[in-house]
Amino acid sequence: MAKVIFQFQHRGDKPTLQEVQTEFGLQEEEVDADYGVVLVSESRGLYVIQIEESAQAELQKRLQEKNPDADPTIGVFSNPSIEPTDPSL
Question: Do residues 16 and 55 touch, judged by C-beta distance below 8 A?
Answer without folding.
Answer: no
